[in-house]
Amino acid sequence: MLTLAELNGFWAITLLILGFGFLIFVHELGHFLVAKWVGIRCEQFAIGFGHAVLCYRKGIGLKVGSTESEYRKRVHEHLKAKKEKDPESLPDFNPDEPIPELMIDQAGEEVGLGETEYRLNWMPLGGYVKMRGQEDMDPTARSDDPRSFNRKPIWARTAVISAGVVMNAIFAVIFFIVAFMQGVNFPPAEIGSVAPDSPAAKATVKFVSDSSGAKESDEELTGLRPGDRVTKVDGEPTSDFVNIVIASALGKPGVPIELEVERPNLDGSGFKTLNITVTPIIDETKNQGLPSIGVAPRLDTELVKLKTFPKDARPGIAKKYKEFNLRGGMKLTHVNGKPATHDWQLHQYLQASNGTTIELTFADEDDSVAVKQTPKTQLQAELVKITNDGSETYQVVSHFLGLVPPLQIGEILEGPAKDKLMKGDIITKVGDKQWPTSGEFIDAVQKSKGAISIQVMRKGERKSFDLEPNRAWFKTPRIGVALNAANDAPMVARIHGDSPFKKALAQSPGVIIKKVAGKEIQNYSDIRIAVENAEPGEHEIVYQTDGQREPSTTKITLDEDTINIAKAQSWDIEVDDLFRQPLYEVQKAESIGAAITIGIEKTHNFMIQTYITLARLFQRTVKIKHLRGPIGIVNEGQRIARRGIQYLLFFLGLISINLAVINFLPLPIVDGGHFVLLMIEKVRGRPVSERTQTAITIAGLLMLGTLFIMVTFYDITRLFGG
Q: Between 3.40.50, 2.30.30, 3.20.170, 2.30.42, what CATH number should domain 306-377 receive?
């Protein structure tokens, strides 16, 4: 298997650009071949825009620059010689004035010159086929030549317009076939986590069978669980997690989907086969507004190699590896001495720990290391809409039952914060914002005009610093800190949403919780344990507000739903960021027939995903800044290409599908827009007026030009760390 891993970025980018150029070539080749087939005269076949760098024409050969002047010169010489030899053979004409097209065409054929100039232009960002009687930039172009585009019947013109899209779809299948003959990594169709109170957590479960032959157990079978492997969705076999996402996204709210699931036994003795009915819902604050069931893919249990992490994160990661005597490549083997090689097993052991210390064993071929960890309760993450200065943005709020912990300095990086702020500092104020969220903190730093004031609490003492953020061209202003939620302290920055604590604590910022339902509170894990062990009803809560000397006591009502949400939260451990990255399995076709099947399936799936993304763009649940332009595609593609030739081909297959979909949208300028105009002509019996076509063309140019500028700006911003 050819690998590109040793290639530097230049060669990876070069291969990607060549591949992208090839996709443009086959798209235009589709137009060209069908145009020739229906008898349209093709004057140019070009890759790129602008002036020609190299050209080829039959009878002239390869030439730097255009062959057009040489073609005209030879035609004129031939016509002049022919007129002199037989004055009656041609009508009178002046070589210095425009000569009828048909006369030039006939003369070119007599001299043995090809009608088509094959061009490589200097700006390789597209391509085109110049057909007589058809100009993308001039919708009024017409010709009386019987071989012109505008003189052909609608079926022929439709075939020509559609051919580029068809070629891109065909070559996407071909790229996928070749890639899957070698093998490509995909997330398996296994559930890694289930969001509390989601459709997946509430799904209806029906026992089917047990692999060991045992009868249905007394175990309560409710909802999807981590470790469940989805084998079918609505009766169709699943190959990877993407199938689950697509089925959920295409599902109609209120209409259930049927999953066939294999649920492994914790001791590894086999699995149960279950039928699970789950109904997707739309939450505008999650999943970009798409219908979803609330599941995430399985995670890996192998420690990630240091070089895989971003460069600015490596010092902190290396420090943690050294602290626990671990190294990349080790795999989780046991928890508390019991086998645990899968993420779902670790999840179940963590849930059973109830926050007490556990021992994890990691091993490789050379060594085995035991690491003790005290789990912390996982916080709930919610995307909330923020309106600021008339503009709407979304920010993630991390909370537990509405209690939002303050921000804490997780790591000190290179920057103004070094030697001033310290790891563990709790941020009480940034600029004029008290107890900020991470989004508010970042926003305040980015919008600061000069030095920004930051107040922190360090070991019970308040300190204040003025820091001047680093500002560089195309880079986001930064002060050099990594932030996390201070959930290892019982402090509450604010109360979010419809929290049962809202009335009891009266939204007091900086409040410290002392007791809940009789349990002493030291951190958020204690709050979780107190709530999940409480009976539904009224309980006492002891708290101390910011600046208050003596604690206060009040009542809080905990209902069954609140207690169940607390129980459903996962547990986090300190070494989480060293492993549990997304898990991938190699999908490799066993035969050319299987590769063709996979190629067609992936082409269909990714085509649907592209349409979904575009639909969400118009619904404004996907933002333009989330899209990628040429720079972003090359930047992302060269990273993928360095993983191996099959990944380069797979990426080119994705691009080919996107080209097919976007080109066939009913938008001005692109093929889909021309297709719509042809359909209108078919219905009306005559073309749309030249004035209307010109207006549509100008509108299309402005729209695509604006979109190109915007995505390029965001690409450059991302490229330089913005």
A: 2.30.42
Structure tokens given for 63: 């030439």
Amino acid in position 588: K
Of 3.40.30.10, 3.40.710.10, 3.60.21.10, 2.30.42.10, the CATH number of 406-486 is: 2.30.42.10
**Phi/psi at 137 (5° precision):** -85, -10
**Sequence-ordered list of residues with C-beta below 8 angstroms from that of 263, at least 6 positions apart, any chain:** 225, 227, 228, 229, 271, 272, 273, 274
CATH number of 191-297: 2.30.42.10
Instruction: Tell me if domain 191-297 and domain 306-377 are identical in fold.
Output: yes
Helix runs in 366-520, H state only = 438-447, 502-505
Q: Exposed, middle or buried: residue 179 (CB in 10 Å: 0-12, 13-18, 19+)?
A: buried
In the chain, where are the structural domains located?
A: 9-153, 191-297, 306-377, 406-486, 590-719
Query: Taking the complete model, does pTM exceed 0.70, yes or no?
Result: no
Indicate the angle between helix axes 154-182 and 9-37, nearest 10 degrees: 150
**DSSP three-state, residue 295:** strand
Give per-residue burial for 257-275: e unless 16+ CB within 10 Å, then b: bebbbbbbbeeeeebbebe
Please give the backbone phi and psi of residue 597, each rounded to the nearest 5 degrees, phi first: -60, -45
Distance CA 156, CA 372 (A): 72
How do residues 413-472 score in pLDDT, each as one tens digit? 888 888 899 988 999 999 988 888 887 888 888 888 888 999 999 988 889 999 988 877
Phi and psi at residue 368, to the nearest 5°: -135, 130
